[in-house]
C-alpha cells in the first residue's frame, strides 16, 4: 500500500514492470521490493528446502527470502535480491524455486514431509544403497532444494573489473562513514567511500529524525554533495565491499546505473588502501517464533525503511513486536503515517511505550497464523494468558547485530558485548582496519557521527596528518536498552535461517545429536551457509545452541564469516576474459595474407598459425597437405616461422653461458655459423631444442620452439641471475622484432638469389651458415637451416616488412611451382625426417630416449647432465624414440595410441610404448609415425601392435628408424 | 625487385576516440634496448649523456631530451626511443634493435587513468605515478610497458603480435567507461 505524502520516490515518473507475467507499476526511486509492497504483493518466493511461501524480511542486501530472476533468455539473471533491484521501466521479473507456479507449488509437499527432513536428514536417510546417492538422491534433492537457475546460454551482458588505490577506504556511507570520509579528506587523505545504496545516508534514509536541525535524509544529501565535490574523495555508490584480503586489498562489487546503453552491468573492484574504516552499520535480527516466516512479517527497521524511504507499508493492520526502545519507533512512525497499529508487544516487562495503540509489555508473539498469502493473525502470550490479534503485517525486532563480517574475513573472531547482546569487532582483526559506528556497537546517530570523526582522526594521525576538530552536527542520542530475546518457546517451527530453512528445533537437535560445536552445528543444519552467510540468523542460532548446550554465547563463539559479503557474479570477476578474451591473440605479420588465402588457423601457444592453404579443387585438408609436402620436396615452399622464440644474447661470457645451458658446446661455434642445440631441465629431462646462431664474437641469437619460448627465457634468466650471476652477459627476446620465413625446397636458393642484393652459393653460404644480407632495400638476416630436410633457408626481416616479404616470397615460389605451406605440411615434413617437437619432448623424455645422448658433451658440464645420468633414466628399460610403419602400408597410425607385443593383451600392464606423432607421408606413399618403444632402437624390424582404446583402432606396425626420408642428409647440403 | 613495404602494428586499427579519450598509434622512432655489461654502468651513463643528454634511468623512471626518450624497461635494462643508437653504447652494453617488436600506443584525454584502471593493476594516480614514471605490467592479459607522459597521457608499449588484442582491450574499456559516464 502506498502512503500519500511519505517516501522519496519520484511520483511524477511511473514505471511499469511485470512479476510472473502480471503487470504492475511503481515509481522512479522504487526498488523492486518497495514497488511490490506498494502493489500489495506479499508472496515473492518459495523457500530453499520446504518450499514455504515467503515474502520480504528486510529492505537491504541481507534479504534472505525475496530472490527473483530478472529478464529472460540468455541475459536473465537469477537470485537477484528484490530489495537491491532498482525499478526500471519494462523490467521482467520471475519468482524462483517453484513449480508449476508460485501460488501452486507442487514441491510444497516437502513442507508436509518436514518431520522427516530435519537437520542432517540426508546424512541419515540416503545412506543406502551407496550407488543411489549420485544417481538418484542427489539429483532429486538438488532439484527440490534450490535457488534460481541459469539460462544455460552464453551471457551477452558486459561486465567490468577495475583497480583503485587510496589512503583510506571507508566502507559504508551512513552517518559514520560520511563523517569519517569528510574528516579524513579534510586532513588531506585520499579517500574512497563505498556504499551499497543508490545514495549515501544509511539508516538516515530510513528513519524520521533530524541531524543538524534538518531531516536526516536532507542532511545526508547535502553531505553527499559536499563529498562528491571534494577533490580528495571518490564516492562510490551502489558499491558493496565484498571481501577483505591481504595487504590492504578489498574486493568490491559495483552495480552500474541501469539504462546506460552499452555500459557494463557490474564492475568488480580491487581496492588497495593504506587504512580502512569499517562503517558498515548493523543488521536487524528477527525473533524466532512459530510461523515467523509468514509473508507480511518483516523486520521493524525494514518496515520503517519502506515507510520513510519509499512511502509504502506492507499491510493495513500492523503489529509491532520487539525487545528494544528502538522498536517503538516503528509503531510511532506507522501511527503518524495513519496506519492502524493493532498492537505493540514488548518482551520487556519494564518497557515504557507511549502512543495511541494497545501495548503489551512482558509479552511475546508465539505464533504467526495465516496462509500462503501471508499472515492473518498473531497469537500473543502475555502474563495474563494468550490471545489472538488480527493483523495483516507484523514488524519484528530482536535487536541489531553489528555488521562485522568484513572484519572477520581474515579469520579474526569478534568480542561479545553483553550490554547490546551482540558481537563487535576486535581491534586488529584486519590489519589497518578500524571499525566505527553501529558496526562497532554505537547505535545512536550521535554515537555514529562522533565515532566516524574519531576513527578519521585516528587514521589521519597514523598517516602523519593533522585531523580536523570541527564541531559535530547535532543528532539524536537515544539509549538502546535491549533485553535479549532469541526464540519464543512453543510448538511449531520457529525459523532462524530463512534462506537455508533452519529452525530452532534443527539447532537443538544438532546439539542433542552431539554436533555441539558451532562449526559442527553449521554443517549439520546448513545454518549460515551460502550467499546469505547467516546475516540475519547467526547470532540467534548460536544463542539457541548456547542455550541447548548449557554454555554462554561468548564460549559458543561464531562460525567463520566468508567472503563475499554479497553474491558476486563470476562474470564480474572474470570480466573481459569471456570467450576470446580468455587469452591474448598473437598474430604473425602474414596472418592477414594467410586468411585471405583461406587458410584455417590453428593455435600454437597464444599464436595463430596457418594450418594449410587450400586451393581450388581440394576437398580435404589432406589433399592440401599432400600437395604442400610435394611442393617442398620438389620445388620450393614458404612458411612463416616467426613464432619461434628468438633470444638475443650478448656479452663477453655469452659463449660460456650457452655451454652451460645447452648439452652441446656452443663456444666453439664460429661467427657466421649455426648449430642445433638441446637444452635440459635441471632434473635432466629435455626442456627444448632449437638453433644457436653466432652473429659475432660475443653475440648470439638462439631460437626456441614456439610453445616453450617463454619457459626457455625464464629458465635462462633463472640460470643467469641465480646460478651464474658472475657471467657477464645480457639477454632479451627479439621474437617480436623479426618476421622470419622458411624458404625450403630444391629451388630455395634460386628463389632467394632472385631477391638478395648479393646472391649466395654453397661456398659463401653452406649448410648451417648465417649472416647479414640485404633485399628489397632492407637489412635482413639469412640462416641456412632446415626443419624439412630439404635445402632450405630462413630469412628474417624487421617485422614491419614481414607482410610485404611474405607476399613477395609466396608470389616467387608460386612462379616456380611452389607456394605457401602450413603447419600440417610442416609436421609431415619433419615426421619424414624424424625431427622432434614437443609431442616427443613432452617433459618426461631424456636425451637418451630421443637418441641424442651423444649430444650431451662429455667434455663439459651442462644444466641437467648429472641428473640425466641417474639410474633408470638410461638403458634398455627406457622407452626410446622409433619410427613406425603400418604393416599393411595403408592403416592410419594414431597419436596417443599404445604399443604392445603382437600377442599380448592390450592392457595397461603390457604396454611397451606409445605413439606421439603420426601422419601420412606423400613422399613414401604410406602412413608413418613417431613413438616411444621400450628398448626401441634395438628392435628395428620387429612387429608391434598399436592399439587405440579410445578410437577403437588396432594396427600391426613395423618398428623403423625414426628418419625415413634422406637419412644421409644429402638433400640438405645439395 | 622493388622495395619492401613497411606496415605499422596498428595499421588499420587506430586511431579511435571513445568519450573524451583517444587512442592512437605513435611512431616512437627507433627503439633500442640497452643493457649494461658488468661494471659498465657509469661508463654507459656517460656515453648516453654525451650522445643524448640523458643518463641511464633508475628503475621505474624515464627521461626525455631533444626528441630522445630513455625509459627503464626491466632489470638492468632500458629502452632508448627516438634516435639511432650511438656506436659508443655497444662498448658498454648489449644493444638490440627493438623497433619492430612493439606496438606503441598513446592513450590521451582527461582522466584516462580511469581507462587504464580497468586493465592495469598499478596505482596510476598522478601523485604516485607522475609524468615520467614508467612500469612493466599487465594490460588485461598482455605484457606492457606503461609510461606517464603528462597529466592526461600515457605511452603504452605492447608486443607487436598482440596489437589487435591490446587495441581491443583498450577500446572495450574506453567504450564501456564512456557509456557509463554518459560521455
TrEMBL record, chain A:
Protein name, UniProt field: Sarcosine oxidase subunit alpha family protein
Keywords, sorted A to Z: Oxidoreductase
NCBIfam families (alphabetical): soxA (TIGR01372)
Highest rank taxon of the organism: Bacteria
Domain FAD/NAD(P)-binding, first and last residues per copy: 167-347
Residue ranges of every copy of the GCVT N-terminal domain listed in the record: 594-860
Family designation: Belongs to the GcvT family.
GO molecular function, one term: sarcosine oxidase activity
Domain Aminomethyltransferase C-terminal span(s) in chain numbering: 880-966
One example of a Gene Ontology biological process annotation: tetrahydrofolate metabolic process
Domain spans labelled SoxA A3: 492-576
UniProt-listed PANTHER family: AMINOMETHYLTRANSFERASE, AMINOMETHYLTRANSFERASE, MITOCHONDRIAL
UniProtKB/TrEMBL annotation, chain B:
Organism: Thalassococcus profundi
InterPro entries found in the cross-reference section: TrmE/GcvT-like
Name of the protein in its database record: Sarcosine oxidase subunit gamma
Cited SUPFAM superfamilies: Folate-binding domain (SSF103025)
